[in-house]
Amino acid sequence: MLRPEWVLILATVLWGTSWLPLQAFAAQGIDGFPMVLASYGLIAVFALPLLYWQRAGWWQQRWGVLGIVLFGGWANAALLSSLSLAEDLVRVMLLFYLAPVWGVLGGWLLLRERLTALRLVALVLALAGIGLTLGVNAQTFSSLTAIDWLALSAGLGFALNNLATRAADQVPMLSKTVAAFVGSSVFAGAACLLFAQTLPTLAPTIWLWIALFAVGWLLLATLGAQYGVTHLEASRAAVLVVFELIAAVLSVAWFNDEVIAPRTWLGAGMITLAAVMAGWPERSPTQLTRSTS
């Protein structure tokens, strides 16, 4: 079986660098919720028949699937919209990465997961690394824009989606994956109607690239994320996803020709160490007794 830690890390790297195609599509005239509708809507067309076909596999845990539709759908729609519209990508990722806080607390409150000392230290270390990398100060959260709120709510939605995915542990993996696409399409379509936004007229080659992005990037990243959070505790998964921040910050610095400051490297190292600590397997008292006997 594939190691869920590594699958989740790969998925988060894909998510962390997703701003590259999103910004490229924005330069071609499609961004925000229309971009979400175009990409996720394509897969949702095929997802609905698939969900109906696998209905026997998820009906007993339909409330968990509904949670994925709502929370996962909003998290994806809000994050992609904010990344395609944002000028300050680092700020967007910082707001989104309050997700580990929600994930650890939610796993403790809702799933009765233990708050071990190692996990708490890992969480504090990860958040400290985020703050060091992005240079958090008193003015960072002083004026939240609509894009900021999208990113902030995406982090909360992502953490709740992880909890819903854990609760729906008997649901087929493919159903859990495409459920998030359906939810994203519904939210994006509702937002387009609310704000009177329509799909722009684009060249056929651009639509082809959007289709390839949806199937070859978003679908793969979502499958990996669903697999990872299904096989990991919510609090552990919440800290592992900080690899998305590493990928985002370093790719922004690389492709935007920004010099990576020493504190950025140090912060990335702290986040990486926190992820390793969070993913370190815990030993039960029985195992400890055997190892000392």
Report what the structure shows:
The chain is mainly α. 77% of the residues lie in helices and 0% in strands.
List keywords for this structure.
293 residues; mainly alpha
Q: How does the major sheet shape up?
A: none
Query: How far apart are the termini?
Result: 31 Å
Number of helices: 15
Q: Structural class per helix/strand content?
A: mainly alpha
Helical content band:
over 70%
Low-confidence stretches: 285-293
H/E topology pattern: HHHHHHHHHHHHHHH
* Shape call: globular
Rounded average pLDDT: 82
Radius of gyration: 19 Å
Quantity of strands, as a count = 0
What fraction strand?
Answer: under 5%
Question: Quick summary of this structure?
Answer:
It is built from 15 helices and no strands.
Show the helix and strand layout.
Layout (H helix, E strand, L loop, with lengths): L3 H13 L2 H9 L4 H22 L1 H4 L3 H24 L3 H8 L2 H12 L6 H18 L11 H22 L5 H22 L9 H27 L3 H7 L2 H13 L6 H18 L5 H8 L1
